[in-house]
Amino acid sequence: MDISVIIPLFNEEESLPELYAWIARVMKAHHFTYEVIFVNDGSTDRSWEIIESLQKEDPQHIKGIKFRRNYGKSPALYCGFERAEGTVVITMDADLQDSPDEIPELYRMITEDGYDLVSGWKQKRYDPLSKTIPTKLFNATARAVSGISNLHDFNCGLKAYRKEVIKNIEVYGEMHRYIPYLAKNAGFPKIGEKIVHHQARKFGKTKFGGLNRFFNGYLDLLSLWFLSKFGVKPMHIFGFLGSLMFIMGFIAIVIVGVTKLYAMSHGMPYILVTDSPYFYLALTMMILGTQLFLAGFIGELVTRNAPERNNYKIEKVI
């Protein structure tokens, strides 16, 4: 199979028929073999009924996954990636803001140019300023932290992947924003970008927004950076910081003690060690250092094993 198209969605009943008809036209015009996987992320409207009706009309090309509740975009992509069978995997949003006409060129860049991943760049956007300004700040930070300097839009929903990429990365939590970074850390460094057409939303309103999305993005980026650097060996950072603080605290206590002994031996006035504020600062550093060291040791034992992390309740699969 040439292409798998994965479409996560939440309450997009108006867009689905038009979106699938558009995708089908593009696929037939270019003679692609394909599948379209709709992942219904706990929609409360008629989205699933529409997916079922589309699947009855075209059972050869349409698949569907229905979550029992809303989990988020990353879980939807994770489950879609598991079922995808195409040589090239395309992800796009269901709101008709991503154009299926971009699919042939994205496919070519993967199969002919040899990219592992191609991310869309909505150079001209039709989103409100409340969304575009935080997006620019977020992307600048993501470029600096990830080292992927050629991407302008990490969070663009329209992306193309070599099949091996999506089968070797784990998208969980809200990590869909950082799939290029995940791919790079998994050993797929050839990441490209394509300017794509961005359309104004035709139906409803955006399901994403708010300050929590902005701050959560930075927290996820910090988490991913830490895991990529120290996730396998947490002792390397916790053990280092803990040992450093313990040694500094120990040296400070020795200095306090030696200072008192020197004053006593020379008949100079002195104070009790326990009356010195430096003693308590040094003791605190030693305690914190010990705790950090133990945290690193425990983290080394755990090493991010979480068997229930991607356990999502799926109500129905078609």
Set out the fold topology.
Elements: E1 3-9, H1 16-29, E2 34-40, H2 47-57, E3 62-67, H3 73-83, E4 88-91, H4 103-111, E5 117-121, H5 129-146, E6 159-162, H6 163-166, H7 179-185, E7 191-195, H8 211-230, H9 235-265, H10 277-302, E8 314-317
Parallel strand pairs: 1-2, 1-4, 2-3, 5-7
Antiparallel strand pairs: 3-8, 4-6, 5-6
Helix pairs in contact: 5-8, 9-10
How many strands in all? 8
The average pLDDT is: 85
The string of secondary-structure elements, in order, is: EHEHEHEHEHEHHEHHHE
CATH top level label of the largest domain: Alpha Beta
Strand-pairing-aware structural class: alpha/beta
Query: Please, what is the CATH homologous superfamily of the largest domain?
Result: Spore Coat Polysaccharide Biosynthesis Protein SpsA, Chain A
- Assigned CATH architecture of the largest domain: Alpha-Beta Complex
Strand order of the biggest β-sheet: 7-5-6-4-1-2-3-8
Separation of termini?
A: 18 Å
